[in-house]
Amino acid sequence: MASLIFSVAMLLLAGRAVANNAVLRSMFSCQAQGLSGVVPNIDVSYQQGTNLSFIPAGETIKKVWLNDPSQVTMDFDGPMCMQFGQEPKLSAGDCKNSAANVIQLRRIERLKIPGLPKMDNTLLTVITEGQGKKKLYTFRIFYKDTAPGYHTLAIYPDSSSNQTNCARGAY
Questions:
Q1: How many Cβ atoms are within 10 Å of 165's Cβ, its own excluded?
Q2: Which of 35, 120, 124, 159 is 20 to 30 A from residue 135's alpha carbon, by CA?
């Protein structure tokens, strides 16, 4: 009888722990593109990485910019074009065949980069391609000391009804 009570108590505690740490946050593509007039936020912390996934939308990441790289690292789930400066000869990787669908962001101790002011947040810009169309996404990255309540922000394709609502909200 004691082992049954212990087992039930452990299951209840484990269920509560999972419920308190939501693993997934999601939004439609039009919301993530800011078509409703709001730039979406992503929290990054020292404790865990935060994933930005375009897998549900069926989109491939073609290029990424991070305005302030002094506090965030980025990693990708596939080949990614890296460009340094304006000249193509300063690029690394195959820019035509970039095939990443997920960006993993993680906060790091602030690096001192000459000329870069200390900021509380930064802007992440992502260009994707899917179904023959390119899309531009921007996300406001906020630096947190504690782990966010999610570890993945998943971007889903728009339905015809929510795409109209997102575009209307921008005016």
A1: 15
A2: 120
Residue 164 has φ and ψ, to the nearest 5°, of -65, -45
**CA dihedral sign of residues 44, 36, 101, 124:** negative
Q: d(Cα 158, Cα 171) in Å, to the nearest integer? A: 19
How is residue 37 written in tokens? 């007039």
pLDDT digits (tens, 9 = 90+) for 50-65: 999 999 999 999 988 8
Query: Could you report the per-residue pLDDT of 150-163, keeping only the tens digit for each?
Result: 999 999 998 766 55
Radius of gyration of the chain (CA): 19
Classify 90 as helix, strand or coil: helix
Quick check: 150 and 51 in contact, CB under 8 A?
Answer: no
Look up residue 74 and give its two tokens: 């980025």
Contacts for 67 with CB less than 8 Å, ≥ 6 apart = 122, 123, 124, 125
